[in-house]
Amino acid sequence: MFTITADAILPSTVTGSWPRPRWFDVSMWGRPLDTCMLDVRFREKFQDAMAVVISDQERAGLDLLTHGDFHCDEDLAGRSWHHYPLQRWAGFEGEYLQPESTRAPWLHYPPGTLLSEIYTGWRWPHVVDRIEHRPLDYPKIWRVAQGKTAKPVRFGTCCSQVMALFLDPKAVASLRRDQAQLLTFYDFPAEHWRHLRTTNIIESPFATVRLRQRVTKGAGSRTKALMMAFKLLAMAEERWRKVNGSELCRWCAPACASSMACRRNRRPLLETRRRTPPNSRGRSTTFDNFSTASCRTASSRCAGSRLGP
């Protein structure tokens, strides 16, 4: 007899995808959610379908609700549940039938059966380049569902181990080799995801330098150019705002070579005060006066705690 949960009321929920309403006849087909939502026809049907599935679960008395996997395309036997990330990650191309020789033993079924028709009907891409992560819009889809109810909404998706069952051996080896790089994005706090998806933290600071460089038509020498760039960045830094969740940068900085090691060691970043290097002439110092370690510390501090306007 179970004693821990004997007198506890456990929350109820469901698993799996919910049937799509027949009038919900639009799909994303590899496009970003923002692009799909620009289509008023998709936007209305997607929002209505999400409201319907949330309402059905509330009337059924469930405690933990689900979005019904309505972001998945309406294709053969739910292939999109596995195929959704592959449509968006870089490094894949084409639609090919999985050879019998590379199919997992427990995926072999006699011809004429339903499962044999499914597994021989699905098509999968081949790996043509290094697999790289691309945004999957999961937080946006979850917010659409959570905005329609006061109860908690859970979100589930397919793991890379399952996708590896259907890909060619080259793809499986690539997924295993690049697994750390593919999943590093999720090792950072959720507050930082917005900044990690963009290059604004790089483009915004240098926009100030680029604007000044166009006005001056050249600084005259490499030393003067570096001095001007450093001074402009130092002045612009005073107007930058902090990144979302800047207090978490103490434990997790994008400048770290390995975020997993950063989280495991839990070592706070060293905050070094900006020091003016010695200058015998008493004039403005140049970028060349700084040591490599000082530049690296300043760069880590800037990338970890500040963001361009």
Written account of the structure:
The protein has 309 residues and is mainly alpha-helical. The protein folds into two domains: 33-185, no CATH class; 200-305, no CATH class. The chain is built from 13 helices and four strands. It has helices spanning 33-37, 40-59, 80-88, 114-121, 138-146, 160-163, 169-177, 179-183, 193-196, 200-216, 222-237, 259-265, 292-305, and strands spanning 65-66, 90-96, 124-132, 153-154. The strands form two sheets. The chain has a two-stranded parallel ribbon. Strands 2-3 form a two-stranded antiparallel sheet.
Q: How many individual β-strands?
A: 4
Strand order of the largest sheet: 1-4
What class do helices, strands and sheet pairing give?
A: mainly alpha
Using the alpha-carbon principal axes, give the shape: globular
Low-confidence stretches: 254-309
Average of pLDDT: 75
Order of helices and strands: HHEHEHEHEHHHHHHHH
Count of individual domains: 2
- Total of helices: 13
The description of the largest β-sheet is: 2 strands, parallel
Strand content: 5-15%
Distance between the termini: 60 Å
Ordered list of secondary-structure elements with their pairings:
Layout lengths: L32 H5 L2 H20 L5 E2 L13 H9 L1 E7 L17 H8 L2 E9 L5 H9 L6 E2 L5 H4 L5 H9 L1 H5 L9 H4 L3 H17 L5 H16 L21 H7 L26 H14 L4
Parallel strand pairs: 1-4
Antiparallel strand pairs: 2-3
